[in-house]
Amino acid sequence: MSSTDDGAGGEYDHCCKVGRVADDHSLSPGVGGGVNEYLAARWRGDDDYPETSLAELVEWFDRRVMGTVYRANDRLATDSRLAAEYDTLRSDDEVDRSLLVDDLAEDGIDGDALRGDFVSVATMYRHLTDCLGVSKPDADGRSDSDWEADKIAYAVETARENIADALQSWENKGTVPFATDASIGVRVTLECPVCHRQVSVERARERGHVCETHMTEGAGPPDRY
To answer: Who has greater pLDDT, 221 or 180?
Structure first.
């Protein structure tokens, strides 16, 4: 691993945003080892940890940052409060988010800066694979490997980041005023080539098929002609 994280306010090489934020807040996983080792073990499912998705790791990391900031400012940091207020800070509801930011300010917390320290799925993926050199075992027959969902989540987050960059450029040029104030929604949709029924990729995975009529083991491969 390229980082020199000791898990308790040690030095990071600031390989990326994850390393910088972890160092800024002296993050510790609360167990043996450092933050990087903990993230890698959970993602891979090592050391008796269940294999964890990128989205879950991002939420753990962000909420760990929140808890550190809350406690430093004597703000109650129960799990339920962190969960609820994390969802609010990450939501597209500007009214609720603004109210929470104002409430945080009363405790001396810069809510916008806190939100800015949150990381994305794409950033976490790059930290694990590029900075730490971690890869998931996908050829050893383990049935619990979920690299496919991670790869889709990474692609969606990367698309969102690229769109945000384009919107920022349009806003700067005056092509689309206030473009960065818009919410960005990226949704992967699968379509049956026969009846053109559409379903989200998450829903297809959940129910085990894209189209029950034309795309199941019983129905055989879809006849497009």
So the answer is: 180
Task: Round to whole Å and give the CA distance between 42 and 52.
Answer: 5
Q: pTM, whole model, 2 decimals? A: 0.66
Q: What does the H/E/C string look like for 53-104?
A: CHHHHHHHHHHHHHHHHHHHCCCCCCHHHHHHHHHHHHCCCHHHHHHHHHHH
Tell me which residue of 60, 48, 190 sits closest to 121, measured CA to CA: 60
CB 179 within 8 A of CB 168: yes
Residue ranges per structural domain of the chain: 17-181, 187-225
Q: How far apart are CA 77 and CA 86, in angstroms?
A: 11
Report whether 56 contacts 153 (CB < 8 A). no
Tell me the C-alpha distance between 125 and 16, whole Å.
Answer: 11
What pLDDT digit, counting tens, does each position of 82-132 carry? 999 999 999 878 899 999 999 999 999 999 999 999 998 889 988 999 999
Q: What is the dihedral of CA 187, 190, 191, 192, to 10 degrees?
A: -160
